[in-house]
């Protein structure tokens, strides 16, 4: 009989308990024992949810205090040596210092986990990198589960993926040179798990879904031949894409089973099953681990039945990937749209879907009354969703049909626009600005919550938010910034805020997912055609502009980011949904311009994140992603300056598409990589203006003026001064005002100091010429 399991669960807790406990620990409000107690409760709840759903294997080891990559490094003693902690003596404080930085060291670099909105901490590998016995946390988690008498399946990030996802530093020529020493630690870990009584272990190697270099692919056989000598039965897990090109390799590996993603690439299930070895398990990931739509049980059962007939008890039914990318439990949702709610399944519900599908593959199981009832209810929900009158909007369809290529082009080229913008902006060299948001204080969050609960009147709420805007403008003028922002006090999240005001979106109450560390986001659900009923930001931005003679940026989230950071409808192509969002934003941009807001930032941090994992699929995606941005940004006059912002992704390989966006100014994250990205912009000869970040906002550490001057000078070595802006890496909502005051004061001082040196250089040049 087939088995049922999942690749992992959300680790934040049903009510974001981990977030609040970790942040309290960072503040010093609770001790480590209290934090550990919270972790134990979350892990116990996750195990209970799996048992109650009827899964055959209880997945453990998927709980992490900050990030799974960082936790794996801690387990094998591979944290960057610059943090100085001895691997065997690593504490939670050491662990968090690597994630967040400290007074002596900046935090580890952070980037996107494949094409998701989760951010992982990038390993640093140098000639000094050493591996050794690290934390005991995984073994403690396993012991907790074994004590409950269940079949335990620990999950561990694989050694090749751990190396591949890192960066070479300090002159290291080849990360693979570290593999022998790293494997010794994996052997130690796997042998100890086996000694604990573990019979199966899940080892994730998601890099197999990438365009993997041959030398990395060839490393799999010797690596797993070595690990097989000491490990329990290994289920090697792949996800996020088609790995059928590696089918022969995976079939020959000395592992007991392989997991493949049957949601992202359903066609590969048959390819694997056709010639799958008689001694290996095939785990079919058929319940979507990355979206919230309930599983079409009838359709998926039809997909699984041939596999069940071929494989028998060697078939495992599973989620496509870890459920960490889904909210925890739909049962927590009591107020959202009742109709749309019936179309959804969160992580706990997906556990039930996996178990139900496994039961349905057996004739006797499928005949059970509860299974039949579940299939009937699901069929009714699927039919109701597909026939709902709320899905389609005739006005949106008409506007889409009327779009032309002219709607994707500015009136003039950048050089003409730049002259028009400089004529009225009159900015100094190296103009300073921020990315948009300022600290979301407890008072701001309380006011928003009170207004939402109708405890605060609309007038009182308006005045509260206006007071916050006045504060933000006053502070920015005191810092000496050149282009200001209104601070976004009224916004809970850069996507959720807009989703709440657009038709075709639904906002959940507790649909939180982890973005990084303690940072959780609540992605909207896009269920129908997207339409803008009225302006969303004009009132706030126009008010801010009235308070100052300096230009104030209007702040919007771009169409691709709105798409990527939402749970997107799956009944039409993603590019069509992106274009609908772009049309709505085009109207918002026009309304801002009409209200006198002439600098408008359209953030697209998720542009690179949305890139398909295989390079052959890039051109189609980049074509529609760029088109969507240009649709929303091109309907303005030459002297209206369009900015965009991108962060925490690798942009080197898509610079032509970034240039094709034709934004007048792009701001990007570069602090954690020490301006590394600018080398690519220089080599590409990026044509427009650029603001590389000089302040890492994801760390509480306040950088000095000298550090920022160093980064500005490094940028000037690559970007001409007339095209260079100075700004933080990202928005400042997660920082407190004391940190912001210090950092932005230093940033402006650094820009002024470099300006003075530039002015002195120009004077000397003119004197020498004379």
From TrEMBL:
Q: Which residues form the active site?
A: 698
Family of the protein in this entry: Belongs to the vitamin-B12 independent methionine synthase family.
Job description of the protein: Catalyzes the transfer of a methyl group from 5-methyltetrahydrofolate to homocysteine resulting in methionine formation.
Q: Which GO terms describe its biological process?
A: methionine biosynthetic process; methylation
Q: Which HAMAP family does the entry mention?
A: Meth_synth
Residues binding Zn(2+), per UniProt: 645, 647, 669, 730
The residues that hold Zn(2+) 1 are 645, 647, 669, 730
**What is the name of this protein?**
5-methyltetrahydropteroyltriglutamate--homocysteine methyltransferase
At which positions is L-homocysteine bound?
435-437, 488, 603
Binding note for cofactor: Binds 2 Zn(2+) ions per subunit.
What are the alphabetically sorted keywords of the record?
Answer: Amino-acid biosynthesis, Metal-binding, Methionine biosynthesis, Methyltransferase, Repeat, Transferase, Zinc
Record domain Cobalamin-independent methionine synthase MetE N-terminal: where: 4-310
**Where on this chain does L-methionine bind?**
435-437, 488, 603
Instruction: Name the gene that codes for it.
Output: metE
Where does the record place the Cobalamin-independent methionine synthase MetE C-terminal/archaeal domain? 430-752
Recorded GO molecular functions are: 5-methyltetrahydropteroyltriglutamate-homocysteine S-methyltransferase activity; zinc ion binding
Q: Which domain of life is it from?
A: Bacteria
């Amino acid at each position: 009989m087939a088995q049922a399991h999942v690749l992992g669960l959300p680790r934040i807790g049903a009510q974001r308990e981990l977030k609040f406990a970790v942040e309290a620990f960072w503040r010093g409000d609770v001790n480590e024992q209290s934090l550990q107690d919270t972790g134990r409760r979350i892990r116990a709840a996750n195990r209970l949810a799996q048992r109650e759903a009827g899964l055959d294997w209880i997945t453990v080891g998927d709980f992490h205090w900050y990030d799974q990559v960082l936790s794996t490094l801690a387990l094998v003693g591979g944290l960057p040596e610059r943090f100085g902690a001895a691997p065997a003596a690593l504490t939670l404080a050491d662990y968090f210092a690597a994630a967040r930085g400290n007074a002596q060291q900046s935090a580890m670099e952070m980037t996107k986990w494949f094409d998701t909105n989760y951010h992982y901490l990038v390993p640093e590998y140098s000639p000094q990198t050493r591996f050794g016995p690290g934390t005991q946390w995984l073994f403690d988690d396993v012991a907790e589960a074994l004590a409950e008498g269940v079949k335990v399946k620990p999950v561990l990030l694989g050694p090749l993926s751990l190396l591949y996802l890192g960066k070479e530093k300090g002159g290291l020529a080849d990360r693979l040179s570290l593999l022998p020493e790293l494997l010794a630690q994996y052997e130690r870990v796997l042998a100890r798990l086996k000694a604990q009584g573990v019979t199966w272990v899940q080892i994730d190697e998601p890099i197999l879904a990438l365009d993997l270099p041959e030398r990395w692919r060839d490393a799999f056989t010797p690596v797993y031949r070595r690990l097989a000598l000491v490990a329990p039965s290994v289920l090697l897990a792949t996800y996020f894409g088609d790995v059928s090109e590696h089918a022969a390799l995976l079939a020959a590996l000395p592992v007991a089973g392989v997991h493949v993603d049957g949601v992202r690439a359903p066609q590969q299930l048959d390819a694997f099953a056709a010639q799958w070895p008689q001694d290996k398990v095939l785990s079919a990931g058929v319940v979507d681990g990355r979206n919230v739509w309930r599983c079409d049980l009838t359709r998926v059962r039809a997909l699984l039945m041939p596999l069940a007939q071929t494989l028998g008890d060697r078939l495992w039914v599973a989620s496509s990937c870890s459920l960490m990318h889904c909210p925890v439990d739909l049962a927590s949702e009591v107020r959202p749209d009742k109709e749309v709610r019936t179309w959804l399944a969160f992580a706990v519900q997906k556990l039930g879907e996996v178990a139900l599908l496994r039961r349905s593959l057996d004739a006797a199981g499928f005949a059970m009354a509860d299974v039949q009832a579940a299939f009937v209810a699901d069929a009714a929900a699927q039919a109701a969703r597909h026939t709902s009158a709320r899905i389609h909007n005739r006005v949106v369809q008409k506007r889409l049909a009327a779009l032309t290529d002219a709607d994707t082009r500015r009136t003039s080229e950048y050089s003409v626009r730049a002259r028009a913008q400089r004529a009225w902006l009159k900015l100094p060299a190296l103009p300073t600005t921020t990315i948009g948001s300022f600290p979301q204080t407890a008072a701001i969050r309380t006011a928003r919550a009170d207004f939402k609960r109708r405890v605060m009147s609309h007038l009182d709420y308006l005045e509260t938010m206006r007071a916050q805007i006045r504060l933000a403008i006053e502070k920015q003028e005191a810092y000496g910034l050149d282009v200001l922002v209104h601070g976004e006090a009224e916004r809970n999240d850069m996507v959720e805020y807009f989703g709440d005001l657009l038709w075709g979106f639904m906002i959940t109450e507790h649909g939180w997912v982890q973005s990084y560390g303690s940072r959780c986001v609540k992605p909207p659900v896009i269920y129908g055609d997207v339409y803008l009923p009225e302006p969303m930001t004009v009132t706030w931005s126009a008010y801010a502009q009235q308070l100052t003679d300096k230009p104030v940026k209007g702040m919007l989230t771009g169409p691709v980011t709105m798409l990527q950071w939402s749970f997107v409808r799956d009944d039409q192509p993603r590019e069509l949904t992106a274009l609908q969002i772009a049309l709505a934003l085009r109207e918002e941009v026009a309304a801002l311009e009409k209200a006198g807001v002439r600098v408008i930032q359209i953030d697209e941090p998720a542009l690179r994140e949305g890139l398909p994992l295989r390079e052959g699929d890039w051109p189609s995606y980049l074509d529609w992603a760029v088109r969507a941005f240009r649709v929303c940004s091109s309907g303005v006059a030459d002297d209206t300056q369009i900015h965009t912002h991108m962060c925490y992704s690798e942009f080197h390989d898509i610079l032509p598409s970034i240039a094709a966006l034709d934004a007048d100014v792009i701001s990007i994250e570069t602090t954690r990589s020490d301006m590394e990205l600018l080398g690519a912009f220089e080599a590409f000869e990026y044509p427009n203006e650029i603001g590389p970040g000089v302040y890492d906002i994801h760390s509480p550490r306040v950088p000095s003026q000298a550090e920022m001057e160093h980064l500005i000078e490094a940028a000037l070595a690559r970007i001409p001064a007339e095209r260079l802006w100075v700004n933080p890496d990202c928005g400042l909502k997660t920082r407190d005002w004391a940190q912001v005051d210090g950092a932005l004061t230093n940033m402006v001082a650094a820009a002024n100091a470099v300006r003075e040196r530039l002015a002195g250089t120009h004077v000397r040049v003119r004197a020498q010429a004379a």
